[in-house]
Amino acid sequence: MPYEVQTSVFEGPFDLLLHLILREQVDLYEVSLARIVDAYLIEIERMEVLDLEITTEFLLIAATLVELKCKRLLPEDLDIDIDDEFALWEERDLLIARLLDCKTFKDAAQVIGLLFDSASLSTPRTAGLEEQFMEIAPDLLEGIDLEDIKKAFIRATTPKPKPVVSIEHIHSIRVSVTDAVEELIDELPRVGTVSFRRLTDSLVERLEIVVRFLAVLELFKQGFIELDQPTAFGDIQIIWIGSPALGVADLSDIDTYEG
Amino acid sequence: MSAESRRALEAIIMVTDSPLEAEVLAQLTEQSIAEVESQLAELAAEYADQERGFQLAHVAGGWRFQSHPAMAPYVERFVLEGQSAKLSAAALETLAIVAYKQPLSRAQIAAIRGVSVDSVVRTLEQRGYIGEVARDPGPGQAVLFGTTPLFLERLGINSVSDLPSVAEFVPGADVVEALEHGLRVDALAVPAPDASGSTDERPTLDDLLDGDPSA
Amino acid sequence: MSAESRRALEAIIMVTDSPLEAEVLAQLTEQSIAEVESQLAELAAEYADQERGFQLAHVAGGWRFQSHPAMAPYVERFVLEGQSAKLSAAALETLAIVAYKQPLSRAQIAAIRGVSVDSVVRTLEQRGYIGEVARDPGPGQAVLFGTTPLFLERLGINSVSDLPSVAEFVPGADVVEALEHGLRVDALAVPAPDASGSTDERPTLDDLLDGDPSA
Asked: Any keyword Thylakoid (chains B, C) (predicted)?
């Protein structure tokens, strides 16, 4: 499947969720949360100015999804805190409301697209004044100053955004957690022990460092590595304890082995 | 004098290069706006009756001559350029949000779409479909966006109130149900039919993160 | 088919901004020139009979719609009252490009603006703000435009070197290319530098969506 074609189909986590639940009719249990979290991270990275409000909302939604999934996967806890339970329902409903809102405008967008299409069948007349009236026409430059001319020039020659957005996605996907896990599984067996600072000193983007940290946590959960942090806020030592024979291709086998 | 003023309206609209408001036409022909509007409606009906190749259209708050949609195949052969490229789905969605919820900020649009909208907002601004209409009075004074007359013109409508009511697009009960099922909280609920097989195994941590226990 | 082609003629002539030759119209409507000419004469007579405020006139070797001379007082009033005196954003941008980058051809202006600029260039020329200043020495000898003394006068400057500096501003690559080649740039035809090669080892979107436990 050509990469670009697929990426352009989904724009962000809401789109992904709507598609998975409504079209594919899959259940949250089957949805890959890491991928949705990745989708959020990509969106946050795409923001030109880091907007705290949006970032917080994105994280809140991602957290709600994780909580819902935990709740569904873990064995029933007998002493459930009723307040926590209600809070989760509330967050879930909020998420559904957001998805519905998003869906509403997706459908409205289609109608607007149709209106554009049907209106484009008519071409407006823009011929303007006939020559004989030109002479009496007032000066068109009335009220226009040098600054307006400069601004108009800059507006006209500013680089136009590329019509295809999918390339940005391709670029952003470099920072997926899965990629980072695969890189680490490839690298850690060779070095044995390494500090987190060392592991990330070649990375420039903060997001890449965050993603690598998430990958380290993931490997810790999977039992591939030991973590050691001798002093608070000190550097973290990462010690590879997984089977050195395991390669990237074997990552998926771990699941069945554990299960 | 009505015949004379109808002729005058035809002449004036013929030489404008953008939709002309009934108010201006009323001043120029020394009539009330209501009179002008009824004459314009008459003219538009006449052209339709006579099956003219052009229409008198009421768009973006004004009146203009335009080619009849049925003649598009002929006009397209002639007008090759200038037709702007189609908008992406993302741009249309953003435009729909701005059209129905204006004025609103970039952050509000992003919250609804669940994605960063910086570049798509810029594209729509460059196309001239949306623009800054106000500033948020709150801290930060965020730019509030709204649709422009050009947007109405390109859509062939007179004002945003001509858009279908947003209520028409509110998802039905089936969608709500599907979302509630897909995101249900209760662990004991019956799993979706196609999730069979994998549910009786004890979930691993990887399931939690990845949902992909056996792939 | 004559009714259809008459409609087509009306539509095409309505949306063009300079007189169209019968020959072009014949091609567009797939008829003989004689047929086109007789239909045009019929239409012109119809408008006269119906005392329309516009005419179908044969000027400068072509056909166009224009306001009826009897309605000139209304059109003049419209012009004098300044209702027509808005320099559109498109016209202002075109004027600015000519001012800063002169001399340049119509094709170069069109390549920068990404749309056909014929009517805008004509308006600016008619208004006396821009004019032919040279001919491209290359094949085709395209007209090269520049601003006029009237333009300088209206802006209150002595020469174009008095325009505010845009030195610190870097124009888009498409603009630079348009100025270098004078050719129309198709943004889609230019491959994005980072779109190739590097994607192979990246996960596919299938991975992104992969949540199916039974896959």
From this structure: no
Q: pLDDT by residue (tens digit) across B24-72?
A: 999 999 999 999 999 999 999 999 999 999 999 999 999 999 999 999 9
Rounded to the nearest angstrom, the gap between the alpha carbon of residue B100 and the centroid of all alpha carbons in its chain is 8
CB contact under 8 A, A136 and C175: no
Same domain, C61 and C91: no
What are the tokens at B70? 């049925």
Instruction: Please state the separation of Cα B195 from the chain's center in Å.
Output: 39
Under 8 Å between Cβ of B35 and B26: yes
Residue type at B56 in one-letter notation:
L
Q: Quick check: B92 and A254 CB within 8 A?
A: no
- Whose tokens are 């166009």? That residue is C64
CATH number reported for the structural domain that contains residue C14 in this entry? 1.10.10.10
Q: Are A122 and B74 contacting, i.e. CB atoms less than 8 angstroms apart?
A: no
Residue of A116, C91, C83 lying closest to B153 (CA atoms): A116
Instruction: Write down the pTM of the prediction.
Output: 0.66
- Please state, in angstroms and rounded to a whole number, the distance separating the CA atoms of residues A12 and B120: 13
> pLDDT tens digits for A15-67?
888 888 887 777 777 777 777 777 777 777 777 777 777 777 777 888 888 88
Partner-chain contact B176 A47, CB within 8 Å: no
For residue B65, what pLDDT is reported? Answer: 97
Considering the domain architecture, whether residues C107 and C204 belong to the same structural domain is answered as yes
Residue pair C17/A126 in contact by the 8 Å Cβ criterion = yes
> CA C145, C148, C154 angle in degrees (round to 5)?
135
The domain defined by A175-248 folds into Arc Repressor Mutant, subunit A (1.10.10)
Q: What is the pLDDT of residue B102?
A: 94
Secondary structure of residue C170 in the 3-state scheme: coil
Q: For residue A135, what is the nearest residue in chain C, using CA coordinates? A: C127
Q: How far is CA A13 from the centre of its chain?
A: 6
Q: Give me Rg for the CA atoms of chain B.
A: 26
Spatial separation of the C-alpha atoms in residues C101 and A153, rounded to whole Å:
10
pLDDT higher than 60, residue B208 = no
B63 CA: distance to closest CA in chain A (Å): 10
What pLDDT shows up at residue A65?
84
What is the ipTM for the molecules in this complex? Answer: 0.70
Residue A242 CB partners (closer than 8 Å, separation 6+): A185, A188, A189, A219, A223, A224, A225
Residue C17 backbone dihedrals phi, psi, to 5 degrees: -110, 5
**pLDDT tops 60 at residue A167:** no
Give the residue range(s) of CATH 1.10.10.580 domains in chain A: 175-248
Containing domain of residue C32, as a range? 3-71
| Residue C3 in contact with partner chain B when CB distance is under 8 A | yes
Q: Higher confidence at residue B146 or residue C122?
A: B146
Kind of pairing between the strands at C130-135 and C143-147: antiparallel
Q: Chain C residue closest to B20 (CA)?
A: C83
For C63-107, the pLDDT digits (tens) are: 999 999 999 999 999 988 866 666 777 889 999 999 999 999 988
How far does B79 lie from chain C, in Å, by closest CA?
A: 8
Burial status of residue C32 (CB atoms within 10 A of its CB: 0-12, 13-18, 19 or more): exposed
